[in-house]
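RECORD TYPE: inverse folding
INPUT: structure tokens
STRUCTURE:
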């Protein structure tokens, strides 16, 4: 589970986040799962400047960031495709969290194809597959997985009581397509966390 990053307040502070992780590791020992810093970053006009200053929490050791848009209609700003393309050309990888939940993509899923072609990776919320975020999000999440447009899946849990639904979603994904289960839940996340986003396996 990742924190949500407020670019205007520069929260969570990177040093604070790393210190808290170190304290947890000290208290519990080197147990699994491994804890790593990171955050879900709202991509706005401050993103590029903060990235250049090294102020944004990365996913893994490469210049890779988990981002999200606004949940209102029009939350995907004009020029986003060009921004993603420019960032990609500078060696920066963007992973879009829960694309199936944004109104702009529910209205027009083809916009996601354009962002993928510009270099953005897509991370589907597992709970969307089992209807936790509504029927429309479930439909789009399943479509992204079935046509190979998803690059990762993640839990995005906010409450302990949702763990049961997470288990259901993992089982459903496994039964849907075993090879995709491995690619989305294991192979690709491992490449990302090890600082090798260029090795993420993508479908056309």
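DESIGNED SEQUENCE:
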């Amino acid at each position: 589970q990742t924190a949500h990053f407020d670019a205007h307040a520069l929260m969570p502070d990177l040093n604070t986040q790393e210190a808290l992780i170190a304290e947890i590791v000290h208290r519990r020992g080197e147990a699994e799962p491994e804890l790593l810093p990171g955050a879900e970053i709202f991509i706005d006009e401050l993103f590029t400047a903060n990235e250049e200053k090294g102020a944004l929490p990365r996913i893994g050791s490469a210049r890779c960031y988990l981002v999200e848009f606004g949940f209102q209609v029009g939350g995907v700003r004009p020029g986003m495709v060009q921004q993603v393309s420019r960032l990609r050309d500078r060696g920066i990888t963007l992973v879009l969290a829960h694309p199936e939940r944004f109104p702009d993509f529910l209205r027009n899923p083809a916009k996601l194809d354009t962002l993928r072609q510009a270099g953005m990776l897509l991370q589907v919320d597992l709970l969307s597959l089992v209807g936790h975020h509504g029927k429309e999000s479930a439909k789009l999440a399943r479509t992204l997985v079935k046509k190979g447009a998803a690059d990762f899946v993640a839990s995005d849990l906010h409450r302990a009581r949702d763990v049961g639904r997470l288990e259901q979603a993992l089982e459903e994904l496994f039964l849907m397509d075993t090879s995709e289960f491995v690619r989305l839940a294991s192979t690709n996340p491992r490449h990302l966390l090890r600082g090798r986003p260029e090795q993420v396996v993508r479908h056309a």
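NOTES: The radius of gyration is 17 Å.
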